[in-house]
Amino acid sequence: MISLFIFRSNSRGMQYGIGTYINELTQALLNIPDINIFLVSYRNSEYKEFSVKPVSERFTEINIPAPQLPIGNSKASEKRYASSVVKLLSGFIPLKEKVVFQINYIDDLAIAVKLKESFDYPVISIVHFAQWQQIFEGNRKKLPGLNIDEPTNNIEFTLSTEKEMYRMSDHIVSVTKYMKDFLVNQYGISSEKISVVPNGLDYKKYRSISEEEKTEIKERLGFNKNDIIILFSGRIDPCKGVFFLMEAFEEACKQNRNLRLVMLGQGSIQDCQKKLQSSFGKVTYTGFIQKDLVASFYQVADIGIAPSMYDHCPYTVLEMMANQIPLIVSNINGLDELLSEEGCLFINPVISEEGDLSFNIKELSNAILKLAEDKSLRAVLAKNSNKNFSKKYGSSRMAEEMNNIFLSLTNADKKATVYEKIEGR
User: What are phi and psi of 62, to 5 degrees?
Assistant: First the structure.
């Protein structure tokens, strides 16, 4: 029996893809009989006191509130809080059994270090995204020249923290191959230490609906039968290409009056609105809404769109594939591992001499119009992407691959763990 401790911080990403990942992985792993799961939610703003909630026989939620009075410099505070977290968990961590600690965010570094100091159990880190992509908006040309081994500024310190997280981990799981290559080439991590396990969804939760059902749901949501609904789902952030999307949608509306754009999520709504001039009444912003309503929007979407400037293995795209929604996506690392030209329309990024990414508004607008006006093409793309999804991206496959890694780590001969700092750090 393996005791798996999955750490979940109170970061923004937990409300989106990372949170979905943890939920899908947890539920899928519970179908494997030899795993006990402890979900450790720390810096949890919903709780004022330490709380333990047994969810089922093999699943326990542990909620740890944020420190009420953080004092001193941030690094010292992080270490003190990490010590408190590990101390609170010590009563749940078996001393002579198989245990794995799973880390999901670089905010977990101080906790991971304390766990390794306190227990002789493996720590596994999941690569959900890359810090450099967020900092430089996908501009790879800004990486050379940085000294992350001896950081002197906030950017170098952030990347140094990320590298340290992966260096001290006993194993790393990347949700994409291209990020494995990045860790090997840029951070000097051994390729043998990294596995690629793409994200997965429980495809049994999704079903196709009839045209009659689709029309009924459309009308219930306030749309007309002939409206062509384009769905964007996720964080409404510049890195998701939303500004280019708004401009392209505005252009497309000049030729097709039936287009409607649904922005499913929260974020830079006001900035998006500034990109519109004459299509205000054709854009819907939902904010966070309940799950059954989210499902309804997925069921009625005619086109799904993900013009990201950088991405990995996004759950929003997987959900669209599962719902048989024809897709328009940016042809970038990560998304090109999920989809092929048989299952979507690719939009090529425009990369300047300085390395900045953008998209051609006309190309994106034409892609919207092409799918809007060709129902048969939509059906072919949806069928192909859904077939690809069912073969490669089920949550049971993800759980099995992760479980194999857990077994490999816990069955390996234990060696003395030496956590060496790079000289000069």
Answer: -120, 120
